[in-house]
Amino acid sequence: AAKMGRIPSLKNFNAFPHAEDHLLKKTYSGAIVTILGLIVMVTLFAHELTFYLTTYTMHQMSVDLKRGETLPIHINVSFPSLPCEVLSVDAIDMSGKHEVDLHTNIWKLRLDKYGHIIGTEYLSDLVEKEHGTHDHDHGHEHDVEKKPEHTFNEDADKMIKSVKLAMENGEGCRVYGALDVQRVAGNFHISVHGLNIFVANQIFDGSSHVNVSHVIHRLSFGPEYPGIHNPLDDTSRILHDTSGTFKYYIKVVPTEYRYLSKGVLPTNQFSVTEYFVPIRPTDRSWPAVYFLYDLSPITVTIREERRNFLHFITRLCAVLGGTFAMTGMLDRWMYRIIESISSSKPRSGM
User: Fold this and answer.
1) Per the structure, how many domains does the chain have?
2) What is the span of the domain harbouring residue 260?
3) What is the pLDDT of residues 285-296, one digit of tens each?
4) Burial (0-12, 13-18, 19+ Cβ within 10 Å), 92
5) What does pTM read for this prediction?
6) Residues 181 and 275 in one domain
7) Residue that is last in its domain, among 247, 274, 296
8) What are the pLDDT digits (tens) for 80-139?
């Protein structure tokens, strides 16, 4: 008998008590609340599933231990006011040596005044050869030294006429391609320094008339990964009635992007500071566009991650369970309101 007396007390632990009969009635208000609850639950389920499937990135910094590798540079720069015949590209490292890897692949694309390509030229050698001695003091301007040539041969005259005609027709030039340089500080620049000083004077009538207006369509130091931002992309610098030298001081940050599939993409990010130095009448230097780069000793590792499956299940249960409970409470609340309104109506006379 004592045992039978203790068994009914177990009912207090029932987490799923049966509802009374009057709470099991099906009503229109309950149907509306149920439909709304299902819509909310489906919406929240889709949101949680998207949140779980979307990858996020973790950033980690460490000391860069790479040695003996090259630094890839991808350039795409247009000069709307300078024909390709007068432009040269040069790359030097911090020691002043013109050292460019064999994988260099630079093209000069002739542009008409509308920006359409009308010709191409492949640059097999980036070292400037026409000028005399230049001062490469860690990327500062070249001092154009005069050669003892006071007469022009037929080739020089022909070039001068060709360049002047191209300038009258509004020709421009796009420098496009990639080069691999030593993994040390250095610079590469685009200028008219490849011209003989007397030829340059005949064409431009002095350095102050060299218009180095340019548009940087793309500049990067390696392949692109999801979310990368190259700060110089689509940068336009147009000069009017002035001339000078543009200097872009670039800090390159070695970067590794690790995909969720365990693939690794070595590349580089960079930040930049820009300066413009106007040409003065007493300057011996000629206008140019310099990209001076240095490497950070810190490497950044960006790793793709996906959220834990148990975390997803926990959030899903919490969201759907909470929505179900709120729907039940709303249903009971509406049922009581409707019942109270119905009971307060005056009954018709007998």
Assistant:
1) 2
2) 68-119+152-296
3) 899 999 999 999
4) buried
5) 0.73
6) yes
7) 296
8) 999 999 998 888 877 666 654 445 788 999 999 888 989 888 876 665 444 433 343 444
